[in-house]
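call fold(seq) -> tokens
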Amino acid sequence: MAAGLNRTTWNLDYPGPTTFPGMVLWGATTSGPTAPPGPYQVRLTVDGKSQTQPLIVKRHPLRSATDADLKEQFDLATQIRDKASEANNAVILIRSVKQQVKDRLAKSTDSQLADAAGKLTANLSAVEEAIYQVKNQSSQDPLNFPIRINNRIASLLRVVNTGDGKPIASIDPIFQDLVGELKVQTDKLQQVLAADLPGFNKEAGRLKLEPVAAK
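ret:
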């Protein structure tokens, strides 16, 4: 900002879920929860010096939702956002490992390394495809290919974020089902990384190649 009078607008949104390049979702959102009514602080930092001022967020006076309703909406949206991030972070991790494996394969034609890579990447891809619809390339593709876990979680987030009000009773059971489905896949991911990645890194080490890191 330039010196002098400046104006900034806060849209009341908290950060949205983690995303990854090229992610295509259907009927979902990547927006974060809306701040509920209550006391906040605004902080201005200039030349290393900070000043704070109290700020009160009030609910819309013409809407029937109570402060408690909006807090419940915020809390559930935050939980759903965090699970959407967990799902997307799993995809990011899988793609990082697969890219590293591809890099190592480009440096060697060893058959044992290739065999270990094939097993590792196949098992990683199975988890990736259960979490995200990897066939999606454009916004129209979900019409032809079924949405996966991360899309369903992000769709639920969109439902909870829409409007001001207490979440409907059916939201939490649906969310818990999705949490269970995601856990099955993240558990599988950890099993693959624990069982198959060391085998690949053993072959890579034999060839004096840098090990693949699960990060």
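The chain has a mean pLDDT of 96.
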